[in-house]
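Side project, low priority. Logging it here so it doesn't get lost.
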Amino acid sequence: MAKWTREYEQLRLKAVDNIEREATPFARRDGEAVRERKALPLLEWCRTYLPHYFEAEFADFHGEMIQAAGEPGMPAFVCAFRGAGKSVLLTLARPLHRALSGEVPYFIYGSQVMKLAAQNMDYVRLELRHNARIRGDYGPVEVAGSQSEWVMRLGPGGGSAKFEAFGIGMSPRGRRHGEHRPLEFVGDDLEDAELARNPQREQNLWDWLMDEMLPALEPERFVFTVLGTMFGPGCMMERARELASRRDRGGRPLGRVFLQKVTEQGRSVWPERFSDETLSRIRATIGLRNWLRNYALESDDPTRPFQAEWMGSYRRDEIEIRRLDVVAFLDPALSRTGCPRALVAVGCERGTGLRYVLEAWIKQGTPLEMMDRLFEFNRRFHPRVMGVESNGGYALIRPLLRELEAKRGERLPVRYVNHSRPKALRIEALCSQFEQGRWLFPENPSAGLQTLQEQFLAYPDGWVDGPDATAGCDELLPGAFSPFAEGETYRSIRKRTDFSSL
């Protein structure tokens, strides 16, 4: 293999500088201290030996990610948001730890081309050569070989581990390190947006993983970990989902897919690294489509009913809410299925019918919290009517609402709605309106509005409470998407027939 590129040589120098500056020798070097450090669980081991990579406290999902990727005999496909630390954990820290502990004698790294795989593998070698903490606790470490194939040997009495790099199309069959076949495969940087748009190249990638890489590993004991991104129909992660949906004769899945979005219920899953405010700024900067792919892990799928480019945007300071016909709708989710509750407020231009989505609250909150949001939306937006879905016994919230109205001295314009059409029909009736650009969202949406957009784009998969509440708002608004004739009286599409205060 040729020399490293100038760009990567600069990255190597920076990595070495960080290692030597931060991974300084431990103060305690006695045998007991060394044994305690080496026996630490993986995530604590990372913070101890690799402080230059792991500054922020780990989140709960990191432990789940490690567990998902480590099951012997189970191909694991990991997709996590940008900046989640998946590459440094699964292509550097975990293989380094397993090699030093003698768990794996032979690693194979894979990427689009061999040089990329060799670079990913090289970060392990840099730690072995320059990390004073590792060399102090694990003894002298000898590393010899080329860029694409090298062997790590520990001191006297210690073991060894081989690392070898492969690009797509290269075959590892028949490879040995002494008596050992390859035991662990680590795949990263295997596809990009260009490759994902080419069905034949995607098929070649999948065939290479399943026909060349997997059969080359030690049967039953192998560890197979692939990192990927959600690119769209036919991409590697979508194929992995299909594999994971199948079972062997014993009922065991044929694969495992781990997906970790950057937010859950509108809040950051790793606030120590990404605050909600930071995520909001990132989303506004990179745009909805890039946000969905890199942070919400929603793949581009032209077959889905709702598309990101159909969601227009507006600046809040460009509209006067008092000039809009404002309605709100609540899906109380009083079932026991764990569905989130959803409250959405929408303002409509009387002359054009344009819908401005003003706010959304989508959470698995308590009934009292849900009532608080109703009162809050009423004070903020002064809606003409607030619909509440009453199907399935939802009208049981009526006594609670009446009690709170009396206590707070505030009456809400609530109308209880019993839907006769299926939920899917109500939601999908919005598709043509979205495609025409008639639904607008704020440029910097709140957490609830972000969740609402993501639920629309994932539809019909996942939770649909937000889209259902939005469809409820639409039914309370005028139906025409054309200017009204001059002098025509403005009317709502239904009369108010049921108010909580009556």
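Brief comment: The first strand starts at residue 76 and ends at 80.
Revisit when time allows.
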